[in-house]
Design goal:
By secondary structure, the protein is mainly α. Helix content is 43%, strand content 0%. The chain starts with a helix and ends in an 8-residue tail after the last helix.
């Protein structure tokens, strides 16, 4: 019984920490609007689909599929980093990062995940060309829109 109580307390504290992290991230960067399309508007989604070939070995675009090595990317924009519900293998550093995925943050991440957030587990060198990153974001904007549940 005590273990169950302690676990429930830990879960509640984790939820509070995520809420606090989200609030802190929004206070830190009030201009970071998750709905911002400043970078993806410069991209070409058709070309971004080709850039995504580098990502698809580890990531799915939809939450309907089981996660691969990395989390599914559905509803990526506006989500607090390290919080996808169906992905339990986030690194500690990503779980504690506390920022919201905006196009600006994703752009910084894609330049070099290891340098952007040292200690994360993503084994990916990055996307060097700025236009490729913009194209990828344009594609992700199209491909990761939440689908309504099947009825």
């Amino acid at each position: 019984m005590l273990k169950r109580f302690m676990l429930a307390g830990a879960v509640a504290l984790t939820g509070l920490a995520l809420t606090a992290a989200t609030a802190a991230a929004e206070e830190e960067n009030p201009d970071d609007d998750p709905a911002s399309v400043a970078l993806s508007s410069k991209g070409d989604a058709a070309k971004g689909k080709r850039v995504f070939f580098k990502c698809r070995a580890c990531h799915n675009l939809t939450g309907e599929k089981r996660p691969k090595t990395g989390p599914n990317l559905d509803n990526l924009f506006g989500r607090v980093a390290g919080t996808a519900e169906n992905f339990p293998r986030y690194s500690k550093v990503l779980k504690e990062a506390g920022f919201v995925w905006t196009e600006e943050k994703l752009d910084q991440w894609l330049v070099g995940p290891k340098t952007f957030l040292p200690g994360n587990r993503m084994a990916f060198a990055g996307v060097a060309k700025e236009q490729d990153r913009w194209d990828l974001m344009a594609y992700l904007r199209e491909a990761t829109v939440a689908q309504p549940p099947a009825q």
